Amino acid sequence: MGKRTITFIFFATTICFSCRTYVSGNGSKHRQFLPTKDRAAISDIDTNSFIKLPFNLNDYCNKVAYKNGKRVIETIEGTDLSTIANTKGRYYVYFWNPVCPAARIDIHKMDSLSKKGENVIMISMRSNYDIISNKLDKTSFAQYPCYVLEAEKYTDLLLVRKIRFTKEACESCYEQYKDDLAVADYLLVENGSITPIMYNDTTNSSILKN
User: Fold this and answer.
1) Are residues 27 and 51 in the same domain?
2) Residue 123's closest CA among 144, 142, 97?
3) Within this chain, do residues 101 and 140 fall inside the same structural domain, yes or no?
4) Contacts of 101 (CB under 8 A, 6+ apart)
5) What is the pLDDT of residues 174-197, one digit of tens each?
6) Full domain range(s) for residue 12
7) Looking at the structure, do residues 8 and 57 belong to the same domain, yes or no?
């Protein structure tokens, strides 16, 4: 086998294992080369500054941001949204990437919504606890726990993590949108139902663009 052949096989194999195929709601497929991963180690949590707990809606309702002087980090799962759906009121569940420069814009618009009295749960798709806390502690979200999705539950691929979380929360949502859930603006939880709001949904997403 020649050197060029070996090199070609190496790169072909690398590309194959570095791609992720997504299926859209209309059945079409597209690939993402080198999908973004959460590279923060779960074991890296600073136990002197943070305390990690499972999701508890009462902590949100009672505005429990600290316990024993430590910033509360709560891991949230798709099944936890059923707890929210079974309560009165409306909740906006928003996914964000704390290390993305555009996160500043996301935080600002969701903070504005929160200050209007709406229930907003910001879920970080990464586990960079110090960055999450620093960015949210300058907003109205400073009074709530920080919420995260983590690799030990959903994989380290960010978009896949979001898709699996939403599918777990709402199987019918996945049946309708498939992997398009990766680009949903947010999830609207209200009156016992969970609805993905896509970016081009002018009826609902407009509230985030004002």
Assistant:
1) no
2) 97
3) yes
4) none
5) 999 988 888 888 999 998 899 998
6) 3-33
7) no
Mark whether 57 and 21 lie in a shared domain: no
Buried b (16+ CB within 10 A) or exposed e, 160-178: bbbbbbbbbbbeebbeebb
3 state DSSP class of 6: helix
Residue 73 burial (CB < 10 Å; 0-12/13-18/19+)?
buried
Q: What is the count of structural domains for the chain?
A: 2
- The average pLDDT across 132-154 equals 91
List residues bridging with 70 in a β-sheet.
67
- Pair of tokens at residue 15: 């590309």
Contact 169, 70 (CB under 8 A): no
Indicate the burial class of 143 (C-beta count within 10 angstroms; 0-12, 13-18, 19 or more): middle
